[in-house]
Structures are given as structure tokens and as C-alpha cells.
Amino acid sequence: MSNPPLLAIEDLCVEFATRRGPVTAVRSVTLQIAKGETLGIVGESGSGKSVTSYAVMRILDRAGRIVSGSIRFGGMGLHDADEDAMSDLRGREISMIFQNPRAALNPIRPVGKQIEDVLIRHAQTTHDAARDKAIEALERVQIRDAAQRYHAYPFELSGGMCQRVVIAIALACKPQLLIADEPTTGLDVTTQKAVMELVNDLTRSRGMASILITHDLGLAGEYCDRIIVMEKGEVVEAQAARELFTAPTHPYTRRLIRATPHAASSVRDLLPEELRTQEKSPAAPLATSTAPILEVAELVKEFNLPGGLWQRLKRRRKGESQAFRAVDGISFHINRGESVGLVGESGCGKSTTAAMVVRLLDPTSGSIRFKSRELSYQRAEQFVRSPLRRELQMVFQDAHESLNPRSTAAQSIADPLLRIEGLTDSAEIRARIEHVAMQVGLPRELLDRLPHQLSGGQKARVGIARAIVTQPELLILDEPTAALDVSVQAVVLNLLADLKAEFGMSYLFVSHDLEVVRLLCERVIIMRAGRIVEHGPVAQILSAPAADYTKELLAAIPRPAHLLPVC
Amino acid sequence: MADPALAAALPRVVSQRSALVHGFAHFRYVMTANPVTLLAFVLLAGMIMIAIFGPALVPYDPLATLADKALQPPSTAHWFGTDQLGRDVFSRVVAATRLDMLISVSAVAISFVCGATLGAFAGFWGGWFDKLSGRFLDTIMAFPLFVLAMGIVAAAGNTIQNIVIATAVINLPFYARVARAEVSIRRNTGYVQAARLSGNTDIRILLMKILPNTLPPMMVQLSLNMGWAILNAAGLSFIGLGVRPPTAEWGIMVAEGANFIISGEWWLAFFPGGALMLAVFTFNLLGDGLRDLVDPLRRT
Fold first, then answer.
1. A381, A398, A405: residue with CB nearest B296
2. Of A315, A427, A507, B242, which alpha carbon lies 20 to 30 A from A393's?
3. What tens digit of pLDDT does each residue of A233-266 get?
4. ipTM for the whole complex
5. Chain-centre distance for alpha carbon B154
6. CB atoms within 10 A of CB A131
7. pLDDT, tens digit, for every residue of A63-72?
8. CA A39 to chain centre
9. Does the N-terminal peptide bond of residue A443 adopt cis geometry, omega within 30 degrees of 0?
10. Chain-chain contact of A19 with B195 (C-beta, under 8 angstroms)
């Protein structure tokens, strides 16, 4: 590297003041980015990767401050620049794309106006020409009918479209450096692919440097030249992307690569050897000849469209339907002891299906037969008292949101025992709780903590413990690992595999991640727009998909060539 | 440990005691983290003590009139001076604390319980009950609230009980609205769904899972309302409704003393007015502290 780097961070330390004294979030981080280079910063939550980028933009919270070190951007020191200089720089020289595009946009201002604001703020245009420039910026991020979209409010656009608008704002003033902080987390895989390729094309065609901050090694591997791995505020490894995957030097990097599902051939491969549990043999030989545990036939769920009397009359005049079909006549079955994956992108009706199967939602029509008994006759409110309630349980998507913030872990797990099983003896309840906590690997001393005092993985365990404490026969898992770091996801997936082997439970595994489904399920159902596109054994669908949509889903998974399984 | 029952009981005893210790530690943390909260709680404790023990400790009988000592300025014998009938203003201000606190606490308690219940049901089930109760509350809100309170007391009769009811009615919509909003944003959260799966009935979910979680914002509302209720009760007495002379009450004392301000006897209205202000001030400061106390997220 003969020419000086565009951005050079030297020995950066960032501290946050908290109730328990200062906490160092970033310690002596050193990194450089040359012009036109794409750098990936990979790490799990709490690794300091976002804080580093906030320090570069000087947008740390009030509690955070740069303790030592320097940040130099093209010869200018950013670590001690004043607020005036920084606000000139932000957006014009360095731009940022945030994780949640909807939150990053002003909800009550048309998106075109928001692009104009940036242009005018940095004196890139006059008021008269702003409109044309904004439309041009929208066109560059491949938004169709840009002139009409100019007037759209963020809520009228999909998540992917919002992220495109954010990119348009970030690139409007032709900055030299773009920082993308988890730009595609929360977007569907096909949208993720489109957004990432757009960013890649735009930055490369303009010779811009960019930093991609992500927890997904696969994504970083596919789009970055160099990758920096961070753990607990420190840089543990910095290498060119290819070398990082072929010859990782740091043990943490190796563990991270191992925990990424892309390369693994079974769920056991995700964990390092020393953490693997003994393979448990099935408790009883599974009788596969018996009737399926769950049969769903022609299930339909319609939601009424919003709007008052006037809109209803208008729809009637146009002969439109008054309801939206979220689930449109789907049929499938689950055998005893089998795991079935239900895969689709957001809005395809997979969560609605799960909610109907678990009897939280009443279907509009169709039948749900559980252990040869029809469930759909009983309304969801009455199902609470059904004896089948304890055999049909669910693990929720967001472990944090699914725990009552005022209940300790033990109280949350005890709830089904008190309400469903009607236990009253507190010693017996405590014993059951401790037993199930041991099964899910939750240390006993954590049982008296409140949810916000637990980590993400621990909360996931509490959620699973609550669901299995009544020993259900069918467990519905609604994206149980979507919000978890890969290493925690690896542990939770192994736990689920162990529990299934031990108790012979059946799983309905709802997910958007085909890779995870591949490791945990025997059969998979692909859903789109409320209908089943394709279903069959996992191996067959993943290796030889019949439907175009499945092919598209598979192609969109970021999978750098050097990350393919090395068998 | 030979006895297994004892061994099983021991951790439970320990965990119960540690819960108390934790509770106290949390209280101490909230107090020390914010000196304003500490001040508010000290003032509240003082007011409660005065309300309980004040009437027994005052130097003079608050109702005893001494014609020869009328309208004396503050002195060592009469700290706050005497009024037009020779009654000791200090004794009357202290004695009035109990009555004013009683009126405001019971009025706020009634409107808190009724309003929270009404709002919680409306927010949880929605539908016709929500619409009906919403319009009913709008009707109350449509009146100028003090005028409505005046109307209720004037129509129902001039008693302390009716002051309490009137104050409760005009505060009802605020609690109902806060409760409705807080419940309706929580009614489909993950932990509520999980509670359904755990076999809880709807009513149990509402009372045991959702309502406790709406406490932090309700507490802020509660403390603001307390100050307001005291002002309201004093205001009703000031215009001659509600508590009747010669009962010691801050509002009446201000009203009576107002006639003497022009002639230079300022202490008659100044001291009860100051007490009123201090009470309102205390309750308004209390809000943040109360919220921090009941918010589980503030615990570590």
C-alpha cells in the first residue's frame, strides 16, 4: 500500500459510563481502509463493532467517550474534531446506513424530501434543482417509478425499498466512505441479495471505500476484500477474506466459522469438540407406522381489510374482496418424532399458520387434527382449558419479548405447571423447574433473575424450558434462533436436537433460514403468499429444488465459494 | 444436613430474605441516584407523620378562639400568628394536613382503581365496551373539570364524601386513558401469548400479567394527580363548597385570610397557601421516583 489510507484508526479506546462504573467497549482497535476497498467487520453482539463505527462518525451516546487513540480520515483528525466540522463531514464525506431502515427514515416526511434535505444541507444543489436530483438519486438505487415514489412516505414502502431510500440518502452527496451497519439484518434473503449487490455496484463504480459491519460471516465473505474479526472490543484477526476462511489463525475466528451453518453437515458440527454433548440415543424406538401426530387440511385464514364503511362500499362496488387471505388453503402433516421445517419470507403466512396450529388464532376454515382429534371446533379462548393444551406448546421468536419483564426465570417456567398441571406444592414445583433448567442447560443460580438480567442465549433457554416443562408432544418453534448470535444459535440448535432425541418430541420449525432448517429437520415445506410452493425431504429440496421460488431462495443465501463444506 | 425437608426449605427462606434485601437495596439505589427523589420522599414522609401525629402535637386547639389575641403577627408564642378570631394559624395549618391528605388520597385511590379497571377492560377486549366507555369519558372531559366538580358537590350536597366523589370523577378519564393505551399495546406481546399457552385465562392474563407491567406510567400519573386533587379539594373549599368553617382546611383558611391581605395581615393566607404549595410540589416530584421503584428494568 503506497498511498496513505483513507481512514486510519490507531489504538482506539471507547468507554461507557454505567451504573457500575466505566465499561470499556472498544480497546486499542487499529485498522486502515484504502480508497476503493471494502472492509468487513465481523463479530457477535457486544464485540464493539458498531461502537467503533459510531466513534468514527462521532455519534456515540452521551455516556460514551473516546478515551484514547486517534481516528484520521484523509489527514484530518476525527477523534478531536469539533461538532461543526463533523456535521459538515457526515453525509458529505462519510455516510452511514443503519440496521433498521424504517427507524432511520423520518416517518412523516416524503422520502424524496428527505433526500433533498441532505443535498441542500451540504450545498450540493439549489432548492429549484433539488427535486430532479432527488429523483435521480432514487433512480440510481433502482427504485422504479422514482418520480412517483418521491412522494411516498416510509410506511408505504417495503423494508427493502426503505433500505434503498436510506442508501440513496447516504450516497446522495457522493461520500468517499460508506459505513453500513448490519444493512440487511431483518430483510428477507432475496431482498438482502438485491440490497447488497446494489451497494456493491454503487461503491465499486464510484471507487468509494466501504465498511460492512455484520454478524454474518457468509455475507462478509461474499462482499468484502478484507475482514476484521472483533471479540469483546478487540480485533482478534485481520485478513484478506479468502485467507480468513481457508487459514484462520485465531481460535475465536475458527469457532465463529464453525458455528456458521453454511459449512456444517450436521447440527453437531456447529460446536467445537469440547462443547459437544454426547449423542443421545432415542429413548424409545420411534414407531413411524402410527398415525401422524398433526394433520392440517385446507387451512385458511382471512383477515378483514382495514378501513371504514366508505372504503368497504368502494371495495364492494369494485367487486374486490373485503378480506385478505394470509393463509390460503394449505395442507400438511407431521409424523410422530419428526421435525418439519416451514420456510418462507416475511408475510408468507408461516407465522399465522403456526399461531393457528398452536391454537392462538382461529382459522377461517379448514381442519387441524392433533393426535386424531379435531381442534378447530374449539375456539382459541376455550382451548386454554383443553387437556390437549399441555401437549401442544410453542417457543416464540423473540425470547426477550416473550418473557414477562416482571417475572423471574423460575416464575416464567412455573407458570404452565401452576395453570395447566395445577400443581400447588412449592417444593415439587421448584424441583420440576430445576430439573427442566438442567435439561436446557440453564444454571440454577440464574433462575431467580429477571429477563433483562439474562443474556440472549439464556433467555432463549428460559423460553424453551417453559415450553417443554409440561412435556408436550408437539413443539412449534417460531424462528427460535433468529435473534441470536451464531455461536449461541449453534448451542440452541444442539439443545433442540438433544431434546428431540431424548423425548421423541415432534417439531414444527418455522424459519426463514433454509440452512438452519437443513440441519434440524427431516422434511421441509416452502411457503409463499399463503400457499405451499413445494414440500418434501430436506436433502431433496435443497439439492434438487423443483419450484423456481425455491431455487431463487437457495441462490440468495450468501455463500462465498471458499465457505463450501470441506469434506 | 440430615433432614431433607429442612434442606429443601432452607434455600427458599434464603431466597425470600434476599428478595427483601434486594428490595431495600433497590429503594436505596433509587433514592441515592436522584437527590430530587430523595427530597420528595423525605417531604412525603414528613407530611404523613404530620397527618398522623400532628393534631396530637399542636400547641393550641385549632378551633379555640381567643378574642383578645385576634390578628397577631407571627411571634415566638404563635409561630404563624393568629387569625381574626384569635385562633393559632400554626395549629390550624398542621391540623388541616390530615383532612386534606385524606380527601386527596381517597379521591385519587377511587379514580385510580375505577379508571384503571375501566381502561384495562376497554384496552384488552376493545369492541363495543371500548367505544361506549370511550364516549362516556369524552363526555366527562368535555366539561370544564372544576366546574363539573362544583356542579356535583352543589347538586349532591355539601359533604366531604361528595368532595371525594367529585374529585374522583373528574380524574377518572386520565387513568382510564393511560390504562387503555398501556394495556392495548401489550395485549398481543410475546409474553401475553406465552401466558395463554401456559393455560392462563384472559382475565388472569389481564390482572396478573398486563396490569402490573402498566404500573410505571400509571405511577407518574398518580403522583401528578395527587397534587392536583389537593388543589381541587382546596379550591372547592375556597369558593365555599365542601368543607365548612370552622373546620381547619387549607382552602378555607386561604379564602378567609384573603380578606385581610389588603389590611396587612398577610400571614393568614400565606402559611396555609405555602403548605398547599409544598404538598403539591412534593407529589409532583414524587412521580419519577415512584416510577423508578416499580420499574423492574431499573433493577440489576
1. A405
2. A427
3. 889 989 888 888 888 888 888 888 888 776 666 7
4. 0.76
5. 24
6. 17
7. 888 888 889 8
8. 22
9. no
10. no
